[in-house]
Amino acid sequence: MTTSKGLWRSLRLAALALIGAVALGAMTPELAFAQETSVAVDTAVPEVVAVEEVVEEAAPTSPIVDKGDTGWMLISTVLVLAMIIPGLALFYGGLVRAKNMVSILSQVLVVTAIGMVMWLLFGYSLAFTDGGGLNRFVGGFSKFFLAGVDTTTLVETFSVGISIPELVFVAFQMTFACITAALVLGGVAERVKFSAVVIFAVLWPVVVYYPMAHMVWWWGGPIMASDPAQADALAAGAGLIWSFGALDFAGGTVVHINSGIAALVGALLLGSRTGYRREPMPPHNLTFTVIGAGLLWVGWVGFNAGSNLESNGYAALALINTFVAPAGAALSWTLTEWVTKGKPSLLGLASGAVAGLVAVTPAAGFAGPVGALILGLVVGPVCLFACSGLKSWLKYDDSLDVFGIHGIGGIVGAIGTGIVVNPEFGGAGIVNYVTGAAEYPGIVAQVSKQAMGVAVTVAWSAVGSLIVWVIARGLTGGRVSKEIEHEGLDYAEHGEVAYHS
């Protein structure tokens, strides 16, 4: 028995030795992986290899597509869709009066549907292709109807040599175009005609959103940026606001300032609701509003962290910032309201959280968590003042405070990004693709760049939105009659009501 056991043990050891020898023989001295290089160690003759040589050998010869990145982008895209339907729809629905619930839900849904079709047909091309002579402002026609986009085409992320499938990028950016146009509806709620909304949904993205997305997010990509010889070409080929060096991680200018200005222009052009400032117009269902705010907050994780385009440390930074900034804003809004008005309101908590989400959007992948918290603490009282004092002083009827929260909050966040990106303040800095280091040009320089981006956004959105709203009003009349407004838009516009008593 003992002899048998010893023999069996010897055979197993011999087999393991044979397998190990075969495995070692099959190994090559150079092994290349997707994002890291393993260098075999020659124990006989040690050799010092220059860092530049290792990096050069490690550089991928073809784009790398990681299933983890792709999976994260698929999830992020669905999260942003949930922000719109049902998130924004319920948030806005709870804020309007009961007689206009069907109206606002219908408007959000139709704008989303039109936005998806428009993006597929030509929006993506106008935002994310080279525009030739107009490239500073808008893309070209090369990908109309998604020409050339299929399951094999790729889009660069923000890391050299790393890509994701182009189709998932198309879908992700599609949701951004949809929610931006849908946000505008809050400024004209409870009096705008459904037909005017349809005209707006068709024209506004072409005139305003697609060019803004191109100006802020179109550039040559990290591979070009990693080559010092391409510096001039990189600057020349970027969108206008990108060429300033202005930072916008997830849409502070493109989405929030843009929609806030468009909502203000629409509200001023269409005029105030009948009875505004003379009769109470409280939200009809704060429960829906808080559910909507919660869905917005959850979906915003995909909005911000998904804008990193990769599942890595920067996505994690954007995620935690999307937690702490709205928390800080909700608390600072509520505390300010408590002190100045005597009572902390549920609506204030929800509004503050949304304001914090807006403010951190451009800074999500640049600010450290403490910087994001500070942004939130600052933006809460600022947006509270914009939605109460400033609005009352100027006497405009931005029904659901789109300008006060998204416009003003977006400006605070865009300017603040130039400060909180500073590595000395815990920020992530600005990546130099040649050296791989995080750099920062200084507060004055970066804030100036951010301010230039904000100025262009405000001007472009104001002029473009005015043109679109004038056309929509001219074709449809713009707003419903006083009788319909008094009765409510639900039955008059849609032949149905949200509630049956």
Write structural notes for this entry.
- The chain has 501 residues and is mainly alpha-helical.
- It has a single domain (67-494), classed as Ammonium transporter fold (Orthogonal Bundle), CATH 1.10.3430.10.
- Helices cover 64% and strands 4% of the residues.
- The protein is built from 18 helices and seven strands.
- It has helices at residues 2-26, 51-58, 67-95, 101-128, 166-184, 194-217, 222-225, 231-237, 240-244, 252-270, 286-305, 313-341, 346-360, 369-394, 402-420, 443-476, 482-487, 489-494; strands spanning 30-32, 37-39, 64-65, 154-156, 162-165, 430-431, 438-439.
- Strands 3-5-4 form a three-stranded mixed beta sheet. A two-stranded antiparallel ribbon has the order 1-2. Strands 6-7 form a two-stranded antiparallel sheet.
- β1 and β2 form a beta hairpin.
- α3 (67-95) packs parallel to α5 (166-184) and α10 packs antiparallel against α15 (402-420).
- The chain starts with a helix and ends in a 7-residue tail after the last helix.
- The model is unreliable at 1-59 (pLDDT under 50).
Quickly name the level 1 CATH class.
Mainly Alpha
| CATH topology call | Ammonium transporter fold
Per DSSP E runs of 2 or more residues, the count of β-strands stands at 7
Largest sheet: 3 strands, mixed
Mean pLDDT: 90
- The level of helicity is 55-70%
Q: What CATH architecture do you see?
A: Orthogonal Bundle
Look at the helices and sheets and give the structural class. mainly alpha
Order of helices and strands: HEEHEHHEEHHHHHHHHHHHEEHHH
> How far do the termini sit from each other?
89 Å
Look at the structure and name the CATH superfamily.
Ammonium transporter AmtB like domains
How many domains? The number is: 1
Main sheet: which strands, in order across?
3-5-4
Count of helical regions? 18
Measured by DSSP, the beta-strand proportion falls in under 5%
**What are the segments in which pLDDT stays under 50 over at least 5 consecutive residues?**
1-59
